[in-house]
Design brief:
With 378 residues, the protein is an alpha/beta fold. It is 27% helix and 24% strand.
């Protein structure tokens, strides 16, 4: 399933090779390549009778992880298709390995085409939950070990999955259906991730809707960014907390760190060059951020986390200035659609951040995902 192709497609001309359709003959072909505004992880190109989506390998950006050949349902296959995985559009009977992608399909008004979801216990979409209750969407097991028998039983025609370095898809690769590797979560700019709506819109035959959703989110995000651009004081912000022996900070080159900056804050690890979570020692966090102005963290509990909870969890937390000054803001990922919003509507999360760092800029705004931590003493 995982073929790594040279990334020679970053021009409007590339050479054709045989693909899963069996069409051959190597020949040059002119195509119209779209220019992305923020995303770095995909390229869309249009040709006579088909389009291509090329997903860049996030771990080696000189290569292509997968190329998908999109041909509209009912149309004859063009001659001389390039090498890649053939997908008929709009896609039908979709299997989602993540609930986040299910929410994206709902945003594209296409959730009715989803027949299976892995780990549905993480669903926050009321419509998807209702479809599960009605037996229209089926539980396909764990993303790491999906129920391939169920995928076959419900007639899955395409799987949408998040790739991982050196990872594979096991028995699912033998089903004979396309696995669309969506590396959207690896984007380094929040709007880069949202721009993947264009990709999903093409798969679902909803490109015009996808473009309008992306533009609306982009405009609102940039409006908020501009609002916070000229603030006189940029509070120092620290993030997350310890798990086991390490504190998993937000990487300084991640889109979350970018959002802190866009919201008018100074991230204490802005000099870090990682794009994902980074495990570091508690002492390092305290040395760098003991006197931070604001502390932002996510948690997963059936009830709100309090200062008392945090101190019971690890007493040295109480030595941080945001703890002493009662300036911690929390997001419960069990009761809020944080992960869905960060993928589709980072503007909502950015508004929360602006409200946290500079409440005077949004005096009438009500938080969407975050809230101030309460004492709630045990």
């Amino acid at each position: 399933m995982k073929r790594i192709l040279p990334i020679f497609l970053y021009s409007s001309i590339f050479f054709l090779a045989c693909c899963s359709t069996g069409k051959g003959n190597i020949a040059p072909l002119n195509g119209e390549v779209e220019e992305n505004l923020y995303a770095e992880g995909f390229e869309i190109a249009h040709y006579k009778g088909f389009s291509t989506i090329s997903v860049v390998d996030p771990w080696d950006t000189t290569k292509v992880l997968q190329r998908y050949i999109l041909v509209e349902r009912g149309n004859d296959l063009p001659d001389n298709l390039p090498e890649g995985t053939l997908i008929r559009t709009p896609v039908q009977n979709v299997i989602m390995y993540t609930t986040i992608h299910a929410s994206i399909w709902e945003e594209l008004e296409s959730l009715d085409g989803v027949v299976g979801i892995c780990e549905p216990e993480y669903l926050t979409s009321e419509k998807a939950l209702q479809m599960m209750a009605e037996g229209r969407i089926h539980d396909c097991g764990k993303a790491a070990s999906p129920n391939v028998e169920k995928i076959m039983e419900v007639g899955g025609e395409i799987i949408v999955a998040s790739p991982f370095e050196h990872g594979g898809y096991g028995q699912a690769e033998k089903l004979g259906i396309p696995i669309f590797e969506s590396a959207d979560y690896m984007e380094t700019h929040p709007l880069g991730r949202v721009e993947w709506l264009k990709v999903f819109g093409m798969l679902q035959g909803k490109r015009e809707l996808a473009d309008s959703l992306f533009t609306a989110t982009m405009n609102n995000y940039n409006r908020l960014k501009e609002l916070a651009a000229d603030v006189q004081h940029r509070p120092r912000v620290m993030s997350e907390r310890k798990y086991g022996s390490s504190w998993f900070i937000v990487g300084g080159a991640s889109y979350i760190a970018q959002m802190y900056n866009d919201a008018g804050a100074e991230y204490i690890f802005s000099d870090n060059t990682e794009t994902g979570s980074v495990p570091i020692a508690f002492e390092t966090v305290y040395e760098r951020g003991g006197d931070s102005d604001v502390w932002i963290l996510k948690y997963a509990m059936p009830r709100p986390m309090s200062y008392a909870d945090l101190k019971v969890e690890y007493e040295p937390y109480s030595n941080f200035a945001p703890f002493r000054n009662r300036n911690i803001y929390i997001c419960n990922t069990v009761t809020t659609p944080y992960y869905e919003y960060i993928a589709i509507h980072p503007d909502y999360i950015l508004a929360d951040y602006v409200k946290i760092f500079h409440p005077e800029l949004l005096p009438d705004y009500e938080f969407v995902c975050y809230e101030a931590m309460q004492d709630n003493l045990r």
